[in-house]
Each structure stands twice: as structure tokens, then as C-alpha cells.
Amino acid sequence: MTRMLIRNVSVLVVPEHGDCRVDQAQDIHITNDQITAITPTGVGEVGEREVIDGTGLVAVAGLVNSHTHSPMVMMRGAAEDLSIEDWFNRRIWPMEVNLTPERVRVGARLACAEMLLAGVTTFVDHYFHAEQIAAAAIESGIRADLAPTFFSSTGHSTAGQDVIGAAFDVTRELSRVHPRISASLGPHATYTVTDDDLRRTADFARDEGFRIHLHAAETDDQTQASLDRHGVTPIQVLERTGVLDAGALIAHGCGIRESDLAILERYADRTTVASCPKVYLKLAMGEVTPIKGLRSAGVRVGIGTDGAAVHNTLDVWEAIRMVALTQKQREHDAEWMTLSDTLRLATRGSAAAAGLADSIGVLEPGRQADIALVDLNGPHNQPLHDPRAALVYSVRASDVVTVLVAGQVVVRDRQLLTMDRDEVVAEARELAHTLVDLSQGGAVQHYAP
Amino acid sequence: MTRMLIRNVSVLVVPEHGDCRVDQAQDIHITNDQITAITPTGVGEVGEREVIDGTGLVAVAGLVNSHTHSPMVMMRGAAEDLSIEDWFNRRIWPMEVNLTPERVRVGARLACAEMLLAGVTTFVDHYFHAEQIAAAAIESGIRADLAPTFFSSTGHSTAGQDVIGAAFDVTRELSRVHPRISASLGPHATYTVTDDDLRRTADFARDEGFRIHLHAAETDDQTQASLDRHGVTPIQVLERTGVLDAGALIAHGCGIRESDLAILERYADRTTVASCPKVYLKLAMGEVTPIKGLRSAGVRVGIGTDGAAVHNTLDVWEAIRMVALTQKQREHDAEWMTLSDTLRLATRGSAAAAGLADSIGVLEPGRQADIALVDLNGPHNQPLHDPRAALVYSVRASDVVTVLVAGQVVVRDRQLLTMDRDEVVAEARELAHTLVDLSQGGAVQHYAP
């Protein structure tokens, strides 16, 4: 039995409703992987346990990256200033011809290092060779929900192979591999997976108890194209194929129409949406996730970065800030998406998007000890009239000092303990050119939603 | 004579037109306050001089914060989730009743520390008690252009005092105080300064060779209100009062109409606009600066943070990124506001907004040695397919390692050399409550544009 105490720390408290607050001078008691108590400093028995001094620091629930493609850090900065069509068709999908298990593992290791050092303790991933991502996550100490990506057809010959069945098998295997790893089903999108294959996915999901993580209604253009070609919105496709009934994490959803909200409301208990707004601005997608409408429909929303091939970072602090800013902009209402609501999305909302609403996202007894200790004493955060404002609008990823996942200290004094940071970076740097090589020709898919 | 060499550094080269590039393995030769040569490493005589090892670092022209109110760091996080009306009328202008020379100096010191540590070597300021800001800037080693703020009327009794004449005197005095300090005239805005007082300002500016730094057309609502009340846009006000003829730095300009562009084009050689988009989203202002139109009119645009009472940081890297993202969004064009164009705004554009187009903003012989050395080797920037992309989309202020202003090393290995960082923070923290105290009643001004 491992017992630990984070002593004399400020604690961000995020209630289900109402204002967040920061409680001063608290002790967080941890046994094994769980928080067992949070008490005023000095109250409660300490006994023999490792003590982390939290003086001057703020404890927040470890951040959750609720939608990403972690190995795409290998393409960071290699596809800039492009339309969404060119980004997919001239860069990313031709580059992904180069994916190998090794290159995916190397990318995922780098991604895990970047995220842990920034206080991200869980990521919700959607990518190829997901077993390699699991290996990197397990090694690094991070928590992950992994969805092996599949298309209905790919640019590669898949004759005679049941690519989808194989992806289902990986989901099943990954769900049993490690306590910190969960798995979901990963059809790419409503425009790259047929209705039949979505039905098959939904059936498998219901039979075996998995969630479905996929892209849908990413832009309003996609929604309009779906209406023009099929007479239904992407959300209607998700309903008629049983995906919503099985339970879905929808990435982006910027093209969700008013009329879709009534549908989503019927499945609100098992539907979540991940919002990654830096990407929507960068790709000039025209819309951001309609969080206000989703909230009215009772659908929980989380915050993510998407892949670094477009977001350029896996910095969830940046994503949180972008959600607050773009939501105020979208609603023409500076009083909307308050500090408290933003922090609630980033914690409870993202935990729900990870399928872990009951075990992470909040600092309270019985929850997993996934904790980031943040130093708000730098000149860029001071004076600290409101630590909640600092956490949304001025904190930097580099302010994260110490990080625990499932009670294990993975970052201490800004040093990654589980992997050799320099070796991880060097390995990625060495292989990076192989990922962006376009000389092979071909593409894993074509974007024409 | 002080001679210095930054050895074996990568150098960001920002041409007037076309693509930026990063030259590897360069030496930057510095004598006194100027760059004298940039050569391939090892070429050129070294002689006896201090050597800074630039291996693994990228040298960029020190960043310029082209519009801010530096002492407002004292109100960081104290006015959140408010409409622009409430932000001004219920928080900021009532709080500014509490301004004293000492509090302004303490705030400016903190602001200078924050900016220098982030690689910001020049700031363009607009605030009260500007002589205190000058003192802080001189002490810290930063470069600044300072505009003493004035209104035509204030909430304070100003009977018998020539507030505006006094502000002019401060501008005149500050312009002579130190080689790193320049000064401008600081009427607050077209909606808080009468046409007569703007004319008086323009006359003084022309007579004594000063620029005019002011807020105008901040939102389209302001433009519409001006049209409704006076039959002219704020830009037309600037023209008819002679402000444009004298030469103006216009803060924000989000409400500049298509019809205003033809006016601005006539004064393009002496007009600049500062864009601070994080603020426009946070206050739900509805628009961002129309940079595409301004560029067509030949008006140079710089990038700024505005005050930290709304931007929450003085982080110009963040402001640069927000300009790229919001401009792509505004124009519905992901291919617009490219990496190169963004970096050009951040360097040449902001230098012009500071009134220093010929002496800062570019690393080349004859320019001031204002340089930030940036470490792009962290996991969040790697692999580095394109360092320009890293500088716009993934760099953090904490990646700035070493900073020079006018040939003086002011930050080395992330440590501020000119001031005691902890003492600066502690002093600000101690006084912070006095700034946000609303018990006095009153306000320095009322927002009703």
C-alpha cells in the first residue's frame, strides 16, 4: 500500500453547478491510486507516507485532452496555411502512407512527454496502430482512452482483409491491457465510413459495451454536403445507424444544426462532444462548437487539442483558453462561458468525454489521484486577484510543476520521471523526415465530404 | 566601446515582402547598442568581446508590444466575464480612481519584468503617470514609447487645471529623458476627447514632431454610435481634427469601415494600427481589426496585448498567435495571414507602430541590438519541420532564454538581470488590493461612446 500526502496546497474546487472556488491550505491524502481525503492542512493523521510540499501551489484535477491524434506530433508544423481540403488531400493523408508501428510509437512517446509536462494526465486518442500508443502511454505513466481509427475504404489495397473487424479486435484487446488504458471504437467519420459499417460498429459497441469515438459535423459545409447528398445531417446519420444509441464521443460538431439538438437531447446521457477551437480558427472552418445549444440539450462537452499537425501543440491550457474566448465571441456575450463554466468543461466535461466521468476530473475522495500542481507565482500571473482567472487566461503550460497520475508522481519539479525526455525528443527528431516524405505517392484517404 | 558576439545561432530573417526564413549557424556581431554584422559562424574577426553561445537557439528581433497599458497588470483577473460597458463602468474606471504615482510605478515594474522575461524588448504604452512608467522602463532595461493618457473631462474635478497641457508637457519631457524612451501624445479616444481637444493635440503634434497614440473605432458599435450622433465615423473625426495628418497610432480599429479605408490610405505613410485580438474575443466585441483592408490601403499594422486587466498577460507570443488565428477566421481563408505575413506584422509592423520602423524590428546591421534567443528544443516544439510555424503556433513565452535590449543583456538563462524578480512581484502583490478597492466611489470616466 502506497500512501502519499500533498501538504498545504490550494485546491481548485469545481462543483457540478455554480461557482468554482480555490480552497487555501489543504492537504490531499492519497492511498495507492486514489484520493482518500482532502482536509485543512494538518488535520487528519499523516502517518508514514511520502509528503509533497504544496506550499504556494494550486492543485487542479489533471487535465484531460478529450480529442487528439497523439502520434501526429511527428507532423508538427509540416502542413501550414492550407485550406482544410489541401490540408487533408495534399499533406496529411498522403503523409500517413508513411505510418509504421515504430513511427507511431515514437510519436506517441513524444506526445505523452509533452502532455505530462503540461499537466495533462489523460488523453482521448483516435489513431492508427493504437497498440503502439497504448505501449507509449503505459510506459509514460499517462492515462488514455484509445480508439483505433478505421475507414470503410482506404487508399491501400485491403482486398480480403477485414480492416474493421481487425480494428474492433484491437479495441477489445486494449480494453484489457492496463488499468490506465481504456478503449473505444474508432470509425473515422460519417463521411469516410458507410452507414452499413457504422451500423456494424454500433452493434459491436452495444454487444461488448464500448463507446464510439468519431468525427461528425466538423463544419457546416459537411452538414450541408450530407444534406445535399443523403438528405440527412451527420447527426441524423449517427442516429439512424445506432451510433448515438450505443453512446458516442463526437469530435468537433461545429456543423451541428439547431434541428440536431433535439436528436442529441434524446441520447444526452451517453453523448459527449469534444471542442478544439484553435483548429477551427486555423483551418477557417467558419464555426465553432455550439456549446450553448449542446448544454441546453443536456449534452456534456469536453475540451481537446485535436492532432498537433494542425493544433501544433497538445497544450490543453491553450485549448481551454480558446474555448472561453471563442465561445464569448460566438454568442456575442462576454458574460457567457464564465471562468467557472470554462473550468467545469475542462474538468467534469472532459472527464465525461473520456468516458471517465466518475473516476477522474474532480479532486475529491474516491477519485483517481490524477493531479497537477501549478505555480501561479510568476510575474505573468501576479498579482493573483482571482486564481480561476489565472487558470483560464494567464497560466502557461510551463507553470505546471508536479504531476501525479493514479497516485504515481510522473513529473516532479518540471522533470519527467518516467521517460528520458531528451532521448524521446531525439528519437522523434531522427524519424521525423520519414513521416512527411511525399515521394511514395498515394494517400490513406481522400477528403470529399 | 562594448563589443559582443552571439555565436552559432539560427536567425529569423523577415524580408519586407515574401517568405521569412531561418538561417542556420550565424554569428551576430554587436558593438555598443547596435548590430554591426551578421555572418556565417566563424567568419569575421571576433577580437576581444563577450561571447554568448547561441547553439541550438533561434534569434528573433525582440518582440514589440505595440499597444498596452502596462500598469494595469495590477488589475489582472479583477474584471472577468463582463460586457465592455460593465468592464469600463463597473470595474476599470472606478478602480482607476485609486491610481497614485507609486502604484503606477509598481505596476509598470511588474509589467517590464513580465515582458522582458518573455522576449518583449519594446512596449508602446498609453497610461496615466507616464513619468513613473518611464522610470520603471529605464530601470528594467526595456525600450518604450510612452503616451500620457488624457480625457477632455474626468470624474475628478479639474477646475482651473490644464490637464491636457500638462499631459503635453509630460510627453515633451519624456522624449528627452533617455535614449530608450520615446514619447507620444495620448488623447484617450475619439469618444472621450472633444474635437477641439483633438485639434489642439494635432497642432501640438505637428509643431513639436510627436505622434498621436489613441483608441478609435474600437468596435463597430462605436462607429455606428459616432455616425448616429455626429454623422461621421471615428476615422473621419481623426481626419477632420488633423490627427491623421499629424500621424497616428490607432489602437484596435475593429470598427473601421470599408469607406474609412480610402481616408486612411491618404495618410498611410504616417498611420499605424495595433491589433490585440484576444481582447476582442474576450469582450465579445463582434469584430477584429480588418487587417486585409488596412494592408490594401498601405497602412502598417502591429500586434499588441492591450492592458492585462482584460488580456490577462502581456505575452506578445500569445497575441501573435491570436492575430494569425483570428485573421484566418475573419477572412474565411486558411491560406491568408501566412506564417511569413504574421511574423512580418510582429516584427516590421510592430516596429512601425512603435514609431521605430528604421531602428528595431529586424536583425540586420545598423539596427538596434534588441534580440530574443529562443529555445525550440522542448517536446512541445519538436520535431521542428518549420521553425516559423513553431514561432507562431507552438512557442511559449517560457522558451525565451536570453534577451538583449540596445546591446545590453537584460535576461540570461531565463533570469532577469536588471531587477530582482521576486522583489518586483512581492511589491506588486502587496499593493494590489489598493488598486481594485471600489469603496472610494466615483470613476475617472464613463463609457458611453
From TrEMBL, chains A, B:
GO terms assigned for molecular function: hydrolase activity, acting on carbon-nitrogen (but not peptide) bonds
Keyword match Iron-sulfur: no
Gene3D superfamilies (UniProt xref): Metal-dependent hydrolases, Urease, subunit C, domain 1
InterPro entries from the UniProt entry: Amidohydro-rel (IPR006680), Metal-dep_hydrolase_composite (IPR011059), Metal_Hydrolase (IPR032466), MTA/SAH_deaminase (IPR050287)
Keywords: Hydrolase
Domain Amidohydrolase-related: residue ranges: 59-410
Top-level lineage group: Bacteria
CDD domains per UniProt: ATZ_TRZ_like
Entry-linked Pfam families: Amidohydro_1
Name this polypeptide is given: 5-methylthioadenosine/S-adenosylhomocysteine deaminase
